[in-house]
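Review form for a predicted model. The reviewer records the input and the model, then writes brief findings.
Reviewer: anonymous (R2)
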Amino acid sequence: MKTVKRIKVPLIEGIERMSFQELDLVMEEKAAKIAVCENNWPKDAPYTPDCNAAVARSQTHLAVMYHVRGLDLRATAMEDNGRSWEDSCCEFFVSDPFDGSYYNFELTCVGSLLAACGTGRQNREPLDTALLTRVIRYSSLERKPLEINGKIFGWTVVMLIPFELIGIDSQALPVSVRGNFYKCGDLTAHPHFLSWNPVAVPKPDFHRPDFFGELILR
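Model under review:
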């Protein structure tokens, strides 16, 4: 039987207009908290860093903040729509509530973002980089290339995604959407593949909307 975790996404007015420091504080006080801790493939990737997420929304944006503590720091994809998943990366996948597709947003530790849409792993359509500029992003790290192994780091990243970018009318929000939260680092010195909602397949695969949990918006 599949596990379907659920999270109630609270409304916090005006978060898309806040500074990183203001947003960090209000998300700590009012956002919903989840642990991105399911190591579904311990034989393939035994290492499990600490990763927690905070989730909230305004009338127009969905905010996802990740707090990470773990080994290694890799940031080589410095442009948007690069190979974010190979770096120290936090990801959010969310289904379009109307057409059966889903979006993947893959944010590196320094704020580079990959985003695409499609119905499965194959034939995904990248979001135009001009659209990605509408995703508000912050990182606690300086935006520069990094590759440091064997040391412990703590860092925070956040993205605020306009509802329109994921096929949702902000004036008529659905009751809920389906999605999952991930932590990965394919080419870090300690590769890892963690999720919020469990993914019960034999090998690491985040592109499994059949294992998404539920985000309750109203």
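Findings: The first strand starts at residue 6 and ends at 8.
Further findings: The first helix runs from residue 20 to 30.
Recommendation: see findings above.
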